[in-house]
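Notes from the 1:1 (GR / supervisor)

We went over the backlog. Supervisor wanted to see one worked example end to end before approving the batch request, so GR pasted a single chain during the call. The sequence is below; no edits were made to it. Supervisor asked that the structure be written out right there so they could see what the output format looks like.
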Amino acid sequence: MSSLSTFPVRVPGSLDLSIARFLLTLAELLDAGLTPERAFDQEGLRRLAGPKAPDACAALRSGRPLSTALATLGFEPRVLARVEAAEASGRVASALRRLANEHGHRGEQARKTAASLLYPMFLIHFAAVARGIVVGVGAGMAAGIFATLQIAAPFDIVIYLIFLAFRSATRGGRAFAFFDKLPFANALLRDLSLAPFLWSLADLYESGMPLDRAVTSAARGANPAFANAMMDAAAGVRGGNALLPGLARSRLVDDTVLAVLQPAETTGTLGEALPRAAELVDARLRRSLQFTGNAPGKILYAGAILLVFWIVYQFYGNYFSYLDKYK
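Structure output shown during the call:
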């Protein structure tokens, strides 16, 4: 989805927020009575769509559906499946609004997390540069630069490695096994896959798609660590079994979701219960992400304060030692 990013340098959360603005604008144009083709003729939407907007317009003019036009913009398979289902049911604008809300929440949280890290990172680098200047005055520029990097570089490398490891875990990479053993992290990883899965399943099932196909489509693009459980549940439905027992045997669905969905599947009201379950998981996920986003900033801030005190103590210690030496 890089074509929708209007930032020359990727700001945390900017891509999700760009996608949310695009989807919301498209939904409003469709609600106003415009066809997808006419909506893409609007200059504002074309700017939001980015450089691949002409390709999307060409697809629509050739009679292709909106989902195909969105595919040319690089949308994820799971999003495309939800738009396809919405096209079949005539609820495209509603589905686009829901997708816009999901991306908007995700982008806002990423931006807040980055903001919480900004000030402590500034303090750490300011302290490192200050120490480098002090060392450089006494021992030369090379020694000063080394003293600066000696403090700043380890912090930058550790933060970057943690970011890469967690991103790998969310995608089912090698780091997943490590984070999955941590009590708080494994619940967060589960909800990061469960929330979009439930929203997708709600949209697809509401559109009239058979449940087994809806589960299979909702699993597209999911974390591989959980996608297998989704596919097994879909296979069980095709075999004539209920959905929830299959999901209950996996680590994907927690007791809260089961309590909402199991009675609904029995009474035939699964279509109404899926959005409620998705909202519950989404709210829980936002709380978890808020805590996860604030915690690193607080830890870094405490570390930055200790670092500043250590540098000040070291400076004055060296200063008084220098005075004692030349008394």
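Supervisor's comment: Residues 2-75 form one domain.
Batch request approved.
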